[in-house]
Amino acid sequence: MKISVLTAALGLLASAGFAQDLTGMWQGTLKTPQRDLRLVFKISKEQSGLKASMYSIDQGGGSFGGTVTVQPPTIKIAVSIGATFEGKMDAEATVITGTWSQGPVNFPLELKHVKPDEAWPIPTNTAPKPMAADAPTNFEVATIKPTKPGTQGKGITLRGPREVITINTSLNDIMSFAYGIHVRQISGGPAWMESEYWDIVGKPEADGLPSRKQLEAMFQKLLADRFQLKFHKEKKELSVYAITVAKTGSKLVKSEADPNGLPGLGFRGLGNLVVRNANMSDFAGLMQSAVLDRPVVDQTGLTGKYDFTLDWKPDEFQFRTFGPQPPPPSSETADSRPDLTTAIQQQLGLKIEAAKVAVDVFVIDKVEKPSEN
Question: What is the rounded distance in angstroms from the CA atom of residue 128 to the CA atom of residue 125?
Answer without folding.
Answer: 9
